[in-house]
Known about the structure:
By secondary structure, the chain is an alpha/beta fold. Helix content is about 20%, strand content about 20%.
Amino acid sequence: MGWHPLLPGLLLSLPLVTGWTTSKCLLTEGSQLPLVSRYFSLCSVTQLPFLAVCFSVTNLTQTLAAVPRTVEGLCLIGSVSSLPPDAFSVFPGLKILALNLHLTELLPGALRGLGQLQKLSFLDQPFGKKSLFLPPDAFGDLISLQSLHISGPCLDKKAGVQLPRSLQRLAVTFSCLQDVGELAGMFPDLVQGPSSRDPWTLHMLDLKFNRGLKMASPGSLQGLQLETLNLDQTHLEAARVKDLGLQKLDVLYAQSTVVAELPAEAVAHFKLQELNVGRNKIGYISQEALASCNSLKSLGLQSTGLTKLPPGFLAAMPRLETLNLAGNQLQSVTLCMNETGDVSGLRTLNLAGNGLRILPPATFSCLPHLRELMLQDNQLLSLEGQLFLDLQQLETLHLDKNPLLNLGKNWLVALPALTTLSLLDTQISLSPDPGFWGAQSLHTLRLKLPSLPAPSVLSLPMYLTSLELHASSGMKPWRLSPNVFPFLETLTIKGRGLKLEVQNASEVFPTLQHLSLLQNSLETFCSQDTSNIFLWQLPKLQSLKIWGAGSNSRPCLITGLPSLQELKLESLQSVAQPRSVQLEELVGELPQLRALQLSGTGLRTLSAAAFQRLGSLRVLVLYTEKDLVLHDSLREYSPQMPQYIYILQSNLACQCANAWMEPWVKQSTKTYIQILDRQLCLTEEGVPAKHPLFSFLWDHCPQTLELKLFLASSSLVFLLIALPLLQEVRNLWIPFLQALFRVWLQGRRGQGGEGKRFLFDVFVSHCRQDQGWVIEELLPALEGFLPAGLGLRLCLPDRDFEPGKDVVDNVVDSMVNSRVILCVLSGQALCSPRGRLELRLATSLFLAAPFPPVVLLAFLEPISRHQLPGYHRLARLLRRGDYCLWPQEEERKDGFWAWLRSRLGP
Ligand SMILES: *[C@@H]1O[C@H](CO)[C@@H](O)[C@H](O)[C@H]1NC(C)=O
Ligand SMILES: *[C@@H]1O[C@H](CO)[C@@H](O)[C@H](O)[C@H]1NC(C)=O
Ligand SMILES: *[C@@H]1O[C@H](CO)[C@@H](O)[C@H](O)[C@H]1NC(C)=O
């Protein structure tokens, strides 16, 4: 077929619609950002309608040309040394811009036109290995800028960059600051000049992770008003902050620094409201230091090596509302001294991870306003009912990770306001007594079920709205009591141990909206017969998340959930016995589903059949799915496809079945499709040449060529007009079109031909390489006389074609005059042009002729369905058992002949 070399050139010259895809960028709407958030960590703002992140940026102009002008958030990752003037002026609506580009300089006017920009970040390798030059008026146009973040690069200490008046947050982190005073040289606006009357105010000055930051030159930030100063992970003594000349400071963070004692002077100097000196070696708090801290509302002393608290600790801080004492070694808590009657206004108290064993009855007696108490990760064995007697306002209680063997009968009755209780990883023995949960208002419960030898009843408060149950495997099934949870909206079940008998889940959980099945054998909730359907029919369920921990041996069809909007299926493929699934085995009829995220499910094939039942789907995200095959039925279905398809950390199989994708992706105007796939395809020889997927398919798949043909069919008009002009092309095309027409015509003529007499019984289509098999095996078996052979009349191209007649004519005539068409298929036959022509004609005849012939396929070697070109519509034939594989083993060959005889008839 001589037209192969000519057509690509012709067809490539046809105008293709500009693609609704971007080569290196990921686009998303803010509302669906959580589904792809790991790619947007630099600019993850869900409130923005439309965001883009671009990777491997080396040519800014080229990359940005593919980004829609309407994006409001833009993250660029790559390597571009300087930002040219007007780099982003075509994005006037940009609100967030994050640049991780190894920039060394911004040219003047680089950020021109970004009057709406609110947040700007420059990121680079940490700890100042690179420097960044900013012209003084770099931010001159950014009249709405609220947040400026420079993380990594070093700025010139005398850069003198002007800051927009609107700025509220300034962060210079992971950089090479040594002295806080250097900021005054970089951003002179921060410091009050002698003439300026109204001082600068910032919500936040963030200097964390400047590992070389040790100094704070006195008076260097004279006049600056700060709400929050963050010095976490620096080497600056927090106490020296008071010398900076700040006019105001409310909140000071100094975690993991060199603080050795409470920076009491700084607290007193600024009348600080919040101080966090966690993860410093403090060990001891003196009475005097405490005396200066009476302005504090919040104090963070987590992991500071405290073994005891000084007497009168709370009394010294009468305004204190939040106290974090987690991760210390407080063996006993002496917050409330004795019956002096002093009460504290504390609302949140964190005592997690302190190794506490016993809490005396009066421990919390002076905390009547406490709302939230964290006691997780201690050694508590028992809790006296009296302990909580004074906590009349307590709403949240965390007791996870405590042995907790003994709980009094009415241990929660004393907590009338309790709404949230967490009891994960305890050894609590659950009493079946409904009074066990005492607290009237409890609506959120997290609970680990103990292993019991016998089935038992799990008695829970009836009015729960949120429930999380952990159940280790090997447990006997629990029954739930009561048997209706009329208000439950959120249910999480973790572990494989729980087997709820809920055939009638909709009656048990009539209002359930969010369900998570984690680390759970999905099979527990799946019918055990052949249908494998998810059993929980929950009419109000909106979101379902299933994380299988790689243990499910068969897929479970999620279907029949009329309100489901979001579905996440993760790690469903069994690690031990991986199995490929099709999308229609995972999801069924879900009419309201808008977002579907699949990850590690073993998905291999996507076809239109699955999407037909997901009429509202807008976003499809595939993570870590291997060797995907996108069936070409999707092409015809594409107008109804989801608007966004992300194929991330996944790869498409290097199979010709995927060859239709590339042109479609480029052409698709309704679906945004992103395939981040760095996988390379090996050549048949295995090593060493590697190719990106689409160029591999282009080179290796004959179909790509003919596929282009298909795509061009919409341009057929153009082609027909051009045809008379293109003499050569005409010479190549006409015979084929003629042949198709004749097939059709002869098929029609054969109408009414019930008793039509055929010239041949079997037309044998095969390629030259398979001729040996045909002559040695097939011919004797079919043409030989009874009983060894069937005595049929075969048509073999090399033997029975009319000499001198055109090949196409010969094939068509012989096929039409044969009762049965037998295609002998092997990898070689699929690659030979004549083999494909015959296959295509046979398929056309089969589909188009009013009285189609019988088409049979004999495979000489296993060939996957995806290798068979989709447009041959062979899939339809294959399903009907009209094919058989020629076995290698001698003893199984009889089976093959039996099949052939049965299909050829008498
Ligand atoms: C970047 O791409 C544009 C357009 O493709 C091109 O004109 C320009 O020369 C490229 N710049 C560099 C530095 O390669
Ligand atoms: C309260 O405790 C303080 C310090 O431990 C002690 O001096 C005082 O006598 C106690 N008062 C009462 C009433 O127990
Ligand atoms: C659910 O079905 C079981 C038996 O099929 C029945 O005993 C139970 O009462 C039903 N629950 C509700 C809430 O109807």
